[in-house]
Design goal:
The protein is mostly helical. It has one domain. It is 67% helix and 0% strand. The chain has helices at 2-10, 16-35, 47-67. Helix 2 packs antiparallel against helix 3 (47-67). The two termini are 26 Å apart.
Length: 75
């Protein structure tokens, strides 16, 4: 995947703090997605586009967590 390629190319690593922040963000996005499931689209314009954006963000953050290695013994 592209994230893995960039991680290897630039020798990127996530600190423990960064991994925690990304994980918290993933949980927040999941919550937002769940709360929009039963929203009447006539009352919230483009709610379907909002859902797609949240889904994309969720996928990209999860890929980063899987593909970018953690720094060892660093905060």
């Amino acid at each position: 995947m592209a994230v893995r390629h960039l991680a290897q190319r630039w020798n990127m690593e996530l600190t423990k703090s960064e991994r925690a922040k990304i994980t918290d963000s993933v949980h927040s996005i999941q919550s937002a997605r769940a709360s929009l499931i039963d929203i009447d689209e006539s009352k919230v314009p483009k709610v379907d586009e909002i859902q797609e954006c949240l889904e994309s963000a969720d996928k990209n953050l999860r890929v980063a967590l899987r593909q970018v290695p953690a720094k060892k013994n660093l905060q």
